[in-house]
């Protein structure tokens, strides 16, 4: 495993000196355990017998006929706890146990990472504390109760924009104070080195499976792989094994919020510039003085002003194209997939799907007729029903 702290000019460890010992300890643990036969055996067993891997590849006949492109879904929504997050939390919880830690601390936005952390911790006998912005606690009430049921303590963060950014700040503070006993189970492929590499390591199972499944089902690779980008973990996991396949276009979809001019959004690659947040140098929404700007998206999991450094690098090199989809487009895609294929997608994943719908509708050659598109369906939408009902005015 390549453990360099930079992806091109992005990444690094922009943390106070006191946070360096646990980051160094984590990097050492990655070297010692991740490729060891004991770790691999236990992780693979848990992934298949507890988390539900491999997740299926599903062809969408009705939607494909409607849009004129062949759509395939990588079904991370079918995993235990309902999203891709569990690939990472299970791996990190197991690593924490190999390191002799007894507790996990985590941040969460949509609550999916918090639920996946609490579940993995319960399975592996670790205690958990989860920090969550007060705004997200309100809009993802069901997930808060699930975390508590799974034995986690949930702390509502009242600082700043009261969303994911502020939850990460609090979780880092907690980790600093409890580093001897506690592992920080970071939820996305961002943050100080080695987290972007660690999270990508556990999430790249998505593209490893999907690439092989696609070849078996279709006989060739997809023309495009599309994934939503919050911090970037489902996208980097969904892209990673396709990176050397130059004939496969990779598309990351950021959240454009309401889409009105001057509105808050959550699209740092398209609308931000390089800056430092949460220990990393990466694309960032910031004002002219470098102060972090609040983000906004209808989907809590995408509501983050930064993005993992590997995505900033892949955008800079041009290997991955990043585009923006707004709240209303995502909500329409949420309805469309439910109606046509009987699958209710998470609002986060609906952004990826909405991009395909938009491009198919343009008929300007952006998405050729009958092209084969793999969409990473990062999670299921049950958690988003309240938001959907609000949208309908019910
Ligand atoms: C279902 C789902 N998809 C996507 C995301 C965005 O995170 P990431 O960009 O790390 O995949 C989240 C975050 O909570 C999520 O719950």
Please supply descriptive tags for the structure shown above.
17% strand, binds pyridoxal-5'-phosphate, 2 domains, four-stranded parallel β-sheet, 14 strands, 394 residues, single chain, Rossmann fold, alpha/beta
3D architecture notes:
- The chain has 394 residues and is α/β, with parallel strands linked by helices.
- It folds into 2 domains: 14-48 and 85-200, Rossmann fold, CATH 3.40.50; 52-82 and 204-392, Rossmann fold (3-Layer(aba) Sandwich), CATH 3.40.50.
- It is 44% helix and 17% strand.
- It is built from 16 helices and 14 strands.
- It has helices spanning 20-33, 37-51, 61-67, 85-98, 112-124, 134-139, 141-149, 164-177, 195-203, 205-218, 233-239, 268-271, 309-317, 327-341, 347-362, 385-392, and strands spanning 6-7, 10-11, 57-59, 70-75, 103-108, 127-133, 153-157, 182-184, 224-228, 249-255, 273-277, 280-284, 320-325, 372-377.
- The strands form 4 sheets. A 6-stranded mixed β-sheet has the order 3-4-14-9-10-13, sandwiched between helices.
- A hairpin with a 2-residue loop joins strand 11 (273-277) and strand 12.
- Helix 4 runs parallel beside helix 5 (112-124), helix 4 packs across helix 9 (195-203) and helix 9 (195-203) crosses helix 11.
- The longest helix is centred in the last third of the chain and has 16 residues, at 347-362.
- The radius of gyration is 19 Å and the shape is globular.
- The relative contact order is 0.16.
- Residues 83, 109-110, 112-113, 188, 228-235, 301-302, 346, 348-349, 378-379 line the site of pyridoxal-5'-phosphate (PLP).
């Amino acid at each position: 495993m390549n453990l360099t702290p930079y992806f091109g000019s992005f990444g690094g460890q922009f943390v106070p000196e006191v946070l360096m010992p646990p980051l160094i300890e984590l990097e050492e643990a990655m070297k010692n355990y991740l490729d060891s036969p004991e770790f691999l055996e236990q992780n693979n067993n848990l992934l298949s017998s507890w988390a539900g891997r491999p997740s299926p590849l599903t062809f969408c006949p009705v939607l494909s006929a409607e849009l004129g492109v062949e759509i395939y879904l990588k079904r991370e929504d079918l995993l235990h706890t309902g999203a891709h997050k569990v690939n990472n939390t299970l791996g990190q919880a197991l690593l924490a146990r190999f390191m002799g830690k007894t507790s996990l601390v985590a941040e969460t936005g949509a609550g999916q990472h918090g639920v996946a952390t609490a579940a993995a911790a319960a399975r592996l006998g670790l205690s958990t504390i989860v920090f969550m912005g007060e705004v997200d606690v309100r809009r993802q009430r069901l997930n808060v109760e699930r975390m508590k049921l799974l034995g986690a303590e949930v702390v509502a963060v009242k600082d700043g924009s009261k969303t994911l950014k502020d939850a990460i700040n609090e979780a880092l503070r907690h980790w600093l104070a409890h580093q001897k006993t506690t592992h920080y189970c970071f939820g996305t492929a961002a943050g100080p080195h080695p987290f972007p590499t660690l999270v990508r390591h556990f999430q790249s199972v998505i593209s490893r499976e999907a690439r092989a499944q696609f070849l078996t089902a279709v006989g060739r690779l997809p023309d495009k792989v599309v994934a939503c980008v919050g911090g970037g973990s489902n996208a980097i996991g969904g892209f990673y094994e396709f990176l050397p396949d130059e004939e496969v276009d990779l598309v990351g979809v950021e959240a454009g919020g309401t889409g009105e001019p001057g509105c808050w959004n959550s699209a740092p690659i398209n609308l931000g510039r390089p800056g430092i947040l949460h220990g990393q140098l990466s694309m960032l929404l910031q004002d002219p003085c470098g102060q972090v700007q609040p983000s906004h998206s209808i989907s809590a999991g995408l509501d983050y002003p930064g993005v993992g450094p590997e995505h900033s690098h892949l955008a800079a090199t041009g290997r991955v194209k990043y585009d923006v989809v707004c709240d209303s487009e995502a909500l329409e895609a949420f309805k469309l997939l439910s109606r046509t294929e009987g699958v209710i997608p998470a609002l986060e994943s609906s952004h990826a799907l909405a991009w395909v719908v938009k491009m198919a509708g343009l008929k300007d050659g952006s998405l050729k007729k009958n092209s084969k598109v793999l969409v990473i369906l990062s999670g299921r939408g049950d958690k988003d029903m309240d938001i959907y009902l609000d949208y309908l005015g019910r």
